[in-house]
Structure formats: C-alpha cells, structure tokens
Amino acid sequence: MEIVQRAVSGFALDLGPIKEPLGFIRVLEWVFTIFAFATAGGYSGSTHFTVKCPGTAMAVQPKFWYPFRLADSSYSMPTCNGTDVETTYLQGDFRSSAEFFVSVGVFAFLYCTVTLVLYLGYQHVYRQTSRGPLADLVVTGVFAFLWLVSSSAWGKGLTDIKFATNPDHLMGSLEVDHTVEAYASMGRLNASVSETTSMQRRRTLTKILQTEVAMEVTEIFGFLNLILWAGNCWFIYKETHFHKDPNAPAPMQEGDVPGA
C-alpha cells in the first residue's frame, strides 16, 4: 500500500514529451501495434467458387480464420451424383507464424503503454539516472528485432495460406482431368473449367478469385512497426550517457572563477 501511495504522489503529468520525437514516435508505435495484432487476430476470410452439375449449381465457400489451422475448416462439395455432397477440409496449419506475430504485437502494446505512462508521468524518474534510457534502448531494440522476425515469418505464412485457399489449388486437388480457360475482369479472375470423370460425367466450375486485402494489411502494419521501433532506437540512444560528449565541461559551482 505504501508503494502505491509513493507512486501516486510521484506522478506529475507532463505532455511535453509528446512534442518530442521520443514520445511522439512511442505514440505512433502504440497505435500501429494495436492495428497489427488486431487485424491479424481478428481476421476471418473465405474463398469462393461455384460447381455446376447437370441441372443444378452449388456455391462452395470454404471459410478460414485466425489462428489459421485450416484443417478445422470444412466445406461441402457436390459430387454430381444425384444429391450427394461430400465434406472436404482445407489443408495446412499456420498457427505458429500467426500466433507469434500477434504475441509480439500484444507485448509491444503493453510495453508502449508502460513507457508512455513513464514518459508523461514520471519523466523526472526516467531521466534521473542513465539506467532508465539504457534499459528502454535495449528493450526497444529487442522489439525491433522481434518485429523483423515475426513480420517475415508472417509474410511467409500469408503466402502459404493464400496458396492453400486458392481456388486453383482446391480444384487441382480433385481427382479429375480438367482444362482451364481464364480471363481477367475488373480485378477478378473468372474461369470456366470443364472436367471429365472416369464415369464420363462433366461438370463446369466457375471460380471467383478475390484479393484478400485485409491479409496484406496485417503484414504492412508489421513492417511499419519494424521501421518505427528501429528508428526510435536513435532517439532513445540520444537520451543515454553514450551520446553525451565526454569532453563537455563540468557545470560551474557557485563561487568558481572562470580560468582559475
């Protein structure tokens, strides 16, 4: 209880650091960190194509979501054999890269919150010794490295997810012979596929491939955070004793005579 009282009594709100690069960049880090883990952790998407059997058509829409364990995502595929429908699952498990990216974002958000409270309410404590800026520099550098690793891993995971959910890949996994005639239209890829099974059944699949912009945004936010955290290292470094001029004259005491 006494520690809490001391912390409250020592709090002195000062918005001055927000006007400096050190505090302003930290606010940007706080905002973009939220965007990074929120867009990745809250993502859900789907891929679409339509299966046309003689006299009937069925829209197939496999759905997937964070943490992208695609084997949990099932969808129904018509067999063009009467009204029979078979249950099929997406393939792939990309939890490791997705959860690592989101975890880095969450811990970075918590660190930004703590340091903003320190900058704005306990600036006198932060600058009292060299240990505060030095520790801040080390942790910020570690997070910059983590953003590099997690964003790169997540970028590779996104590529694999897009391949695993691409209608071309899903149709190619069907045990049929097929030919594809495709043309681009208004940013979408529309294709008609004629397939012949061993029973000489024919069915036409019309695919619609849409760009998953939201997935790309998560990766962009990751690398934006990398730039912010790496750049902020310089401004934190300027607060440490390493940046101070070792030959700077010592402050004069009262009563000292210059040149004496």
Summarize the structure.
Helix content is 48%, strand content 20%. The strands form 3 sheets. A 5-stranded antiparallel beta sheet has the order 3-2-9-8-7, with no helix packed on it. It has 7 helices and 9 strands.
Structure overview:
The chain is of the alpha+beta class and 260 residues long. The protein contains 7 helices and 9 strands; from the N terminus they run H-H-E-E-E-E-E-E-H-H-H-H-E-E-E-H. It has a 5-stranded antiparallel beta sheet, with no helix packed on it. Strands 1-4 form a two-stranded antiparallel ribbon. Helix 2 packs antiparallel against helix 3, helix 2 packs antiparallel against helix 7 and helix 3 runs antiparallel to helix 5 (131-164). The protein is elongated, with a radius of gyration of 28 Å. Residues 175-211 and 250-254 have low confidence and may be disordered.
Q: How widely separated are the two ends?
A: 52 Å
Ranges where pLDDT stays below 50 over 5 or more residues in a row are 175-211, 250-254
Silhouette = elongated
Q: By helix and strand content, what is the structural category?
A: alpha+beta
Biggest beta-sheet profile: 5 strands, antiparallel
Q: Which whole number gives the mean pLDDT?
A: 75
Quaternary assembly:
single chain
Number of helices: 7
Task: Work out the radius of gyration.
Answer: 28 Å
Q: Indicate the percent of residues in helices.
A: 40-55%
**Strand tally:** 9
Strand order within the widest beta sheet:
3-2-9-8-7
Q: Which features would summarize this protein structure in a list?
A:
260 residues, alpha+beta, 5-stranded antiparallel β-sheet, 20% strand, elongated
